[in-house]
Fold this protein.
Amino acid sequence: FLAKTQLPEKRPPPLILRPLSLEQSESHLCPVRALDVYLNRTDDVESNRLLVRWASNKPEIYPQTISSWIRRIIKDAYTFAQKPLPPMTRLAHEVRAISASCAYQNNMSLSELLQAVGWTNPTTFSAFYLRDVGGQFSGTGGYGRPVRKVCRKGG
């Protein structure tokens, strides 16, 4: 898989997903388990698309579908946490900018950040993605619990 900004001759390093050590009741939150389930459910589906529906009674998955899922989970997490939704998080496209800015603000080195998101030039980050997130997202780990609660409820 290549992101829209990546060239075939400059492939990104492999993405390594590690299983989470969770209680049995939270095992559905493990990305490795989720990927295994997804691959098993879509094994018979012939498609060149990255994400495909796993049941014929499910709607097709388009970029707008994923965008709406991202917006919905963010909105639900803030609602569950009884926090106002910051205006900049209403667009799924902003999630990449906010997450990169938060990582940088929380002392991730610029070189690690560039590698993680697949950028080769720091100007890309500073010109197009760096946001003034101030203190509103500091300690964002506190939102993990509300996100897990929303996921557990099924949205």
